[in-house]
Design a protein that fits this description.
193 residues, bis(5'-nucleosyl)-tetraphosphatase (symmetrical), hydrolase, Hypothetical protein af1432, single chain, metal-binding, nucleotide-binding, YqeK
Amino acid sequence: MDREQALEIVEKKIKGPRFQHTLGVVETAIMLSEKYGADKEQAEIAAIFHDYAKLMPISELRDTIIEAKEDERLLLYHPELWHGPAAAYILKNKLSLENEDILNAIRFHTTGRANMSLLEKIIYLADYIEPGRNFPGVEETRELAKNDLNQAVLKAISNTISFLLAKKAAIFPDTFDAYNSFVLNKDSKTTLT
């Protein structure tokens, strides 16, 4: 599947500001993939489809999570986390997208997880820093992304955790696992700044 086919499929599901966000994620993912040596076409396809299930009704998302046999703990957390795993399942089973790295980049783009692949980091970060985003901490994360992918992803995860703590919102365990994976990775020079 090429870019134009993928965009045509996605545009039927999401329109307006959500589609504009998707285009911003696509361009950011391409830039990050070129900078950090990821497969550009895979980054492009993952970015195009990352929010494919975003506008599905909550009841359909719930049913898809159950049918997909995804981590059922997700159902205890905010439905905002459900669209990534639901999209990965739909794309694999209805659109025959078989690349596991692309599917995982879509699946974990809201939560992150321990030991993220290069593509997973790129999609997570592209979703966070795309040009349409405007919230405290995004500029600092964009600056970090210019020089160090791991530091930028760690900053995005840290900001997300801080935001959720301030709201007294539950934080999905995969997000803590992602944070700890970066902090504890002895081969990485990643540190909080």
